[in-house]
């Protein structure tokens, strides 16, 4: 069983590939005798998510638990049930949920796994579009942003796993949507593949306030916040009265020893802005409703999704770290096995 192990808790700065290592142990390919309510999974696709970086540190405050040094990382994945002693799962089921960064995972007392019912879409979608990031976009946009037709919407990290969907949902509702991303290739995707009205490369814009004024001369109704720091500060200067900010994540701050301050908070008062943080797992009860909306949209070609695929567990550490340099174009996933 090939595994990606965390060597030691990471301290300070951006984790490195060398904080992880690929090792191999031998295992039985069945649930061991006497273990009740367990499943043995063959992991097919694994997800790289920004929050995993938090789990590489010894944190007491994070909303995700820390990994154990010497053990495989864990994260969202799509897997096939090879063996089960749990009444709700049987051999041959396909599921998505939190699994190990390894070829096979023995999960005791599984909870928070979703059985995959619709097999007529790519299985990889269940770690992106139809998985946790998709639910994040859905819950964050529809439940937190109170969107309505005609709203001016701004999405940062817009070409990523979550952002690309937020933009498409907003367009389908009839909003004016602008996204930012960190390369020309990503800006082209936003405009030409995901249908954003406009997009810009934030790395080429020394004055974020000025660029936002250019794209939103009348101000921003909804900001879908993925980035934090200077971007949030510039957005605050450009919000409209009664604007909403869905605080989904602040990736620019995750690897700083001292997170940046936010200077323009007074604009929350002046513009009567509502800022609301949210965590996707609080919204998983809406998953059936989300599927009901989005599966037909996929089939009708109204929603599209870009994935960035790394082949094999050996490629996993670099793919995970790459989220923080913007190496990924679209949803970053790892193929462990195709069947
Ligand atoms: P992405 O697929 O968007 O990958 C991360 C991207 O962030 C990179 O490709 C890069 O794109 C951008 N980025 C990295 N560092 C910086 C930086 N310093 N400044 C600006 N942009 C940066 O990730 P996800 O879509 O999975 O996640 C997006 C956000 O949503 C994250 O903040 C994440 O933590 C959050 N999240 C929150 C959840 C919740 O429950 N609240 C659930 C899931 C995700 P670029 O080239 O454009 O810089």
TrEMBL record:
Top-rank taxon, per record: Eukaryota
Stored Gene3D superfamilies: Medium-chain alcohol dehydrogenases, catalytic domain, NAD(P)-binding Rossmann-like Domain
Domain Alcohol dehydrogenase-like C-terminal, chain residue ranges per copy: 161-293
Lineage: Eukaryota, Viridiplantae, Streptophyta, Embryophyta, Tracheophyta
InterPro entries: ADH-like_C (IPR013149), ADH_N_2 (IPR041694), GroES-like_sf (IPR011032), MDR_fam (IPR045010), NAD(P)-bd_dom_sf (IPR036291)
Keywords, comma-separated and alphabetical: Oxidoreductase
Stated name of the protein: 2-alkenal reductase (NADP(+)-dependent)-like
UniProt domain Oxidoreductase N-terminal: residue ranges: 2-113
PANTHER family per record: PROSTAGLANDIN REDUCTASE, PROSTAGLANDIN REDUCTASE 1
Short name of one Pfam family: ADH_N_2
BP-aspect Gene Ontology terms: response to oxidative stress
């Amino acid at each position: 069983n090939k595994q990606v192990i965390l060597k030691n808790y990471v301290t300070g700065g951006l984790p490195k590939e060398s904080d992880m290592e690929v090792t191999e142990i031998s295992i039985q390919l069945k649930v061991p005798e006497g273990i009740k309510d367990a499943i043995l999974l063959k992991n097919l696709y694994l997800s790289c998510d920004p929050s995993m970086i938090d789990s590489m540190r010894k944190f007491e405050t994070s909303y995700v638990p820390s990994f154990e040094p010497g053990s495989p990382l864990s994260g969202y994945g799509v897997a096939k049930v090879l063996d089960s002693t749990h009444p709700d799962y049987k051999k041959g089921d396909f599921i998505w949920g939190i699994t190990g960064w390894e070829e096979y995972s023995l999960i005791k007392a599984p909870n928070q796994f979703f059985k995959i019912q619709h097999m007529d879409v790519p299985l990889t979608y269940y770690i992106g579009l139809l998985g946790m990031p998709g639910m994040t976009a859905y819950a964050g946009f529809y439940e937190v942003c109170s969107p309505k037709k005609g709203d001016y919407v701004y999405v940062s990290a817009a070409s990523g796993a979550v952002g690309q969907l937020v933009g498409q949902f907003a367009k389908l509702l009839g909003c004016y949507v602008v996204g930012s991303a960190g390369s020309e290739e990503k800006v082209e995707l936003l405009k030409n593949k995901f249908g954003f009205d406009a997009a810009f490369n934030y790395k080429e814009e020394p004055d974020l306030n000025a660029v936002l004024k250019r794209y939103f001369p009348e101000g921003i109704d909804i900001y879908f916040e993925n980035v934090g720091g200077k971007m949030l500060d510039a957005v605050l200067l450009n919000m409209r009265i009664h604007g909403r900010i869905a605080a989904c994540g602040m990736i620019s701050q995750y690897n700083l020893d001292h997170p940046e301050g936010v200077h323009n908070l007074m604009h929350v008062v002046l513009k009567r802005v509502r800022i609301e943080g949210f965590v996707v797992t609080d919204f998983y009860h809406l998953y059936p409703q989300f599927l009901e909306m989005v599966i037909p949209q996929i089939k009708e070609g109204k929603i599209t999704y870009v994935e960035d695929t790394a082949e094999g567990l050996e490629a996993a550490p670099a793919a995970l770290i790459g989220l923080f340099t913007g190496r990924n174009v679209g949803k970053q996933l790892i193929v462990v096995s195709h069947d």
